[in-house]
Amino acid sequence: MKNKSKSNIGEHEKYRYEECYAKILLERVYPEIYTDLSILDKPDLQNEVLQVGVEVTSAVPSSLREAKACWIKANNTNDMKIKSKYVKRMEQIGYKYTGGMQNWLKEDIDQLYEETSLVDLEISIRSKMEKKDRGGYKELKNMDLYIDAMFSFFSINDDDLYELVKNVNVGKNHFRKIIINAIEDNEIVMIDTDEDNYSVTSYDSRQYEYALAALDMIKKEDTE
């Protein structure tokens, strides 16, 4: 059984869906860079042999984050009373529960998506850099940052995204790579600061598979 104590670096209290999903997505999309990542703490994902660490964060709007938390809890229970409570809460904040293959379109026709802005992304990056600067992290040669974000490349240009990261991710303790998951498009952007380039990769056909695998990781942990 995993150590639940939070007292030491590297120990972790409980799996979070975001970390499970990031682990699966990174290992499947970039197997040549990320393999056998352990879910720990400071950083969230680690492979000590490869000397790779990944911090996981979210720039998703707060109400959508709450809806996702309710969706996870509704999915992970067989108690219909508990499930109903979380499904109802999702409806209250504008999202219809659709089960394992969740649709994140809002019920409000005037605002189908709650989107992440470039400012939101900048805040997320700066926040993680400041946290990293304060120390307390496991010493690993390569430190990367993964960000969940709700946007489409119709609303945010990939070149603008690249320029933002280049301008913000600077200094002695910058992240080697920043990986941004564009949830609306099911595309993932990897911005390599050291190599000064970026790539965009689609995982659209596998999104459902990855989401279920992340939920399954949480369910298995809860039974241990």
Return Rg in Å.
18 Å
Give the low-pLDDT segments: 1-12
- Widest β-sheet, arrangement of strands: 1-2-3-4-5-6-7
Determine the N-to-C terminus distance.
Answer: 6 Å
Instruction: Write down the CATH topology of the largest domain.
Output: Hypothetical protein pa4535
Q: Which H/E pattern describes the elements?
A: HEEEHHHEHEEEH
CATH architecture name of the largest domain: 3-Layer(aba) Sandwich
Number of helices: 6
The major pleated sheet works out as: 7 strands, mixed
Strand fraction:
15-25%
The helix-and-strand class reads: alpha/beta
Binned, the helix content reads 25-40%
What number is the mean pLDDT? 88
Shape: globular
Number of extended strands:
7
CATH C-level label of the largest domain: Alpha Beta
Total domains: 2
Summary of the model, kept short:
This protein is 38% helix and 17% strand. The protein has six helices and seven strands. 29% of the residues are buried.
Q: Which descriptors apply to this entry?
A:
7 strands; 224 residues; 7-stranded mixed beta sheet; 2 domains; Hypothetical protein pa4535
Describe this protein's structure:
- The protein has 224 residues and is of the alpha/beta class.
- It folds into 2 domains: 17-61 and 115-223, Hypothetical protein pa4535 (3-Layer(aba) Sandwich), CATH 3.40.1540; 62-111, no CATH class.
- It is built from 6 helices and 7 strands, in the order H-E-E-E-H-H-H-E-H-E-E-E-H.
- The chain has helices at residues 17-29, 62-75, 80-92, 118-133, 158-168, 207-223; strands at residues 38-39, 45-47, 52-58, 142-149, 177-182, 187-192, 197-202.
- The protein has a 7-stranded mixed beta sheet, sandwiched between helices.
- Helix 4 (118-133) packs parallel to helix 5 (158-168).
- The radius of gyration is 18 Å and the shape is globular.
- The chain starts with 16 loop residues before the first helix and ends with a helix.
- 29% of the residues are buried.
